[in-house]
Design a protein that fits this description.
This protein is α+β, with helices and mostly antiparallel strands and 157 residues long. The protein is built from 4 helices and 5 strands; from the N terminus they run ααααβββββ.
Length: 157
């Protein structure tokens, strides 16, 4: 009898955990759609202001906007993504959801990673990472004058 009670409790707990993970993932996916819409509209300041404090400590609002503009110049507009790979982590700091996308942009492919902290019914951006061959060996922040080649290591400025 005791064994069946414990088994029932374990099944109920796993069911609640799975439901919480699914809801957290759905919240993060909705936030990712909002991020994409805002980025396409150039609303980088609002993305930055709504991000988590640790995101804001990692970069300034101005540098984030320059970086996003540079990404847009190099890869073009986002077009589509395959359904994301995802993981949910629950710990002392709350629940985070990481979504990984194989995305297609106007000028080529790239891999994106979004890290969201779930707070109630909201997802707060903790991290955004993008990798694409289109981003290599170029000045995303726009600090190098146009048409000036990259400086080779050990060569004079």
């Amino acid at each position: 009898m005791k064994r069946s009670v414990w088994l029932g409790i374990a099944v109920a707990a796993l069911s609640l955990l799975a439901d919480g993970c699914a809801k957290s993932r759905e919240t993060a996916e909705a936030a990712t759609r909002t991020f994409r819409r805002r980025a396409a509209s150039g609303e980088f300041a609002s993305i930055y202001k709504d991000a988590a404090p640790e995101f804001q400590k990692a970069t300034t609002e101005v540098d984030f906007a320059k970086l996003m503009e540079g990404i847009g110049r190099k890869v073009g507009a986002w077009q589509s993504s395959k359904p994301p790979g995802w993981k949910v982590f629950s710990g002392m700091g709350g629940r985070t959801v990481t979504l990984g996308y194989a995305s297609q942009f106007e000028k080529g492919a790239g891999n994106e990673e979004f890290i969201w902290r779930i707070e109630g019914e909201s997802a707060i951006l903790v991290g955004y990472h993008i990798n694409s061959p289109l981003l290599l060996a170029d000045d995303l922040l726009g600090t190098r004058p146009p048409n000036k080649p990259l400086q080779q290591s050990g060569s004079p400025p």
